[in-house]
Structure formats: structure tokens, C-alpha cells
Amino acid sequence: MDIGKPVSFFCKIYANPPCSNVVWKKYEDGQYTTIQIDCKDCSQTENFTSHLKLDTFMESDSGYYLCYATNIVGTSKSKCISLSERTYAPIIKVDVDDNYCFKKIDEDVSIPYTIYANPPCTSVLWKQKNEDGNIKKIYPREIAFYQRKKITGSFALVKLTERQSGYYVCVATNKEGTTESRCVYLYVTKPDNAEDDVFSSDEENSTVGTLPYTGRRPRYYSCPSNFTIDYQPSKRRRRRLS
């Protein structure tokens, strides 16, 4: 059962003569606690349905519930109903638009994330897969053993380098299993004051043409995930002056 949700039980009772009372009890840690008593309604009919409603389920409501019905012949009890909080593997939400993050060298980056887990996570870590296909585990300072069912944090990297470009994924584990978040691609570029790389090639070996100089810096856009580049630019030839 999810915390904060309403829950309802019912018990059908057949008795002749009718019951004098119907009692709901909760059993936990070796003790019975009376939750609800029905007296008037059940005494009017031989067939009676008793309802137990909890408007908002809380963790303290977990336990075993039984229904007791009594008439002049005796007392009977229902089967035991177990009520407990639902358990599930971690659910990870990463707050990055379009799965892309663009930063420049020496800048810092922060990727917000939220994890829901019951029972709480035993480990949370981030993995990086760079452009060479190598996978590296990263352990930020704030990540440790958690006792909370909801974790809100931010994965931070400071003074970025080009080597830190690549795919990043959050991995969370609890007793129910291990979950990975969606991938976030971090693209680290040179600062604005860096010199532009100049590319050229023979027309026979390349489909890349030259554009007239406009005085503005070119704009770069991300490529689709299945896009590959086979073209390797050659160095600019220097013309000999005669």
C-alpha cells in the first residue's frame, strides 16, 4: 500500500441470531488493539457487512487486521488481513532538458536528481561513459548510505575539462533491485576566447565547402545519437610566395 492513500476492508458476516457486536482489531508486536466497534447495525440482520476505512494510510498503520463477530452462541474471527507499505525498486528522475548539457572548459556543472525508493537505497552512484566507450564510476561526496525513501540531490562537477565530455547515468540500488536513470550527455567546449580551429580539404575528398567570412562566430548544434563523422580534416596548406 502507498503512503497517503486511502484503504478499505470489509467483512461479510452470517449469524443466527444476529450479532450483538462486530469488532475490528489490529495485531502488531504481540498485542491486539481495538480499531472499530459496530453494535447497532449488526443486530438488525442475520447477514451483515462490516467496513473498516482508513482515510490516509500511514507507516504506523502497517500490521495484521482481524474482524471479530459475537452473538449469544459465541464469538468468531475472520482470516488475518496483512497491511503493509508497498516496496519497489528505486525510481530516478533527472532534471535536464532534452538529455543534453552544454558547458565550457573550466566551468562547473550541476545535474539535479530525485530518487524514490522503498526500502531506502543502499547505494547511489553516477557512471560516465566517454567517447572512447570506457565506463567510469563516480562517487560524489554527498552520496553515502541513505535512510530516506526520497533523496533529492545534485550531481556536481567543477572545473570541467574536455575529457569529461560523455554520457552520464545515475544508478541507485535497494533490496528490491537496481535502477538506472536516463542518460545525460555532457558536452564540454572551448571558451569563447579560444582560437577557432581552421579546417580545409581537397574538393575531391570532401563534401565540406567553405563559407564567406561574416565576422560572426559559427554556432554549433548537437547531432543525433546515431550520427557518425568519418571526415577527418587535413592541415591547411601554406602557399609559397614567389
UniProtKB/TrEMBL annotation:
Pfam families (alphabetical):
I-set (PF07679)
Matching SUPFAM superfamilies: Immunoglobulin
Residue ranges of domain Ig-like in the record: 1-82
Q: What is this protein called?
A: Ig-like domain-containing protein
Give the keywords, sorted.
Disulfide bond, Immunoglobulin domain, Repeat, Signal
InterPro entries in the record: Ig-like_dom, Ig-like_dom_sf, Ig-like_fold, Ig_I-set, Ig_sub2, Neural/epithelial_adhesion
Q: Which organism is it from?
A: Mytilus galloprovincialis (Mediterranean mussel)
- Which Gene3D superfamilies does the record match to this protein? Immunoglobulins
What are the GO cellular component annotations? neuron projection
